[in-house]
């Protein structure tokens, strides 16, 4: 298993979401990347992992994969109806 590293942006986003009452933690975000329910190709070779976050929402995590590590670029909660079209 590769090491998981959070970009500066991703670490800041954890704090910003917390101020808005959205409590996510690093373990949950890592779990989405390591065990996604859905995986898509993103822009510029990045990957987007997705996992359910309750009945109405999903958590999407954008990351880059390297030989030695996975780098979390950003993440965002979204409405299931928008992202679960399959």
Structure commentary:
With 86 residues, the chain is α+β, with helices and mostly antiparallel strands. It has one domain: RelE-like (YaeB-like fold). 29% of the residues lie in helices and 40% in strands. It has three helices and five strands. It has helices spanning 8-19, 26-34, 80-83, and strands at 3-6, 38-41, 47-52, 57-65, 69-79. A hairpin with a 5-residue loop joins strand 2 and strand 3. The chain starts with a strand and ends with a helix. The model has no long low-confidence stretch (mean pLDDT 92).
Brief digest:
This protein has 86 residues and is an alpha+beta fold. It has helices spanning 8-19, 26-34, 80-83, and strands at 3-6, 38-41, 47-52, 57-65, 69-79.
CATH fold label: YaeB-like fold
Distance between the termini: 29 Å
* Overall tally of structural domains: 1
Radius of gyration: 12 Å
Strand order of the largest sheet: 1-5-4-3-2
The total count of strands amounts to 5
Key attributes of the depicted protein:
86 residues, alpha+beta, five-stranded mixed beta sheet, globular
Protein topology:
Elements: E1 3-6, H1 8-19, H2 26-34, E2 38-41, E3 47-52, E4 57-65, E5 69-79, H3 80-83
Parallel strand pairs: 1-5
Antiparallel strand pairs: 2-3, 3-4, 4-5
